[in-house]
Amino acid sequence: MSLKLLIADDEYFIRQRIKKIIPWEKLNLTFAGEAENGQQVIDHLEKEPVDLLLLDIKMPQMNGIETARYIKEHFPSVHMLILSGYNDFEYARTAIRYG
């Protein structure tokens, strides 16, 4: 059984690039969808559960940290990988607490 992966990033081209570089079959992953903000992630999870979430830190409406906090509380079975292009380790420290 393959694991369902949801990609969340506010930048369309980043989402497309991630979809292209992941060796889906080799990793036994299924593309579950994409979201451009935290609210879209939550909306997706309420309709269709996923196993893995690739989550950007900086997104509009609801950032990655807020989204991770919500997911940990309401969807604890979802595993998260959090992405960031920022050098500030505080983002990473906070993300580790929630993911």
Automatic annotation (TrEMBL):
Modified residues (4-aspartylphosphate): 56
One Pfam family this sequence matches: Response_reg
GO biological process: phosphorelay signal transduction system
Recorded GO MF terms: DNA binding
Top-level taxon of origin: Bacteria
SUPFAM superfamilies xref list: CheY-like
Role summary: May play the central regulatory role in sporulation. It may be an element of the effector pathway responsible for the activation of sporulation genes in response to nutritional stress. Spo0A may act in concert with spo0H (a sigma factor) to control the expression of some genes that are critical to the sporulation process.
Name recorded for this polypeptide: Stage 0 sporulation protein A homolog
Keywords per UniProt: Cytoplasm, DNA-binding, Phosphoprotein
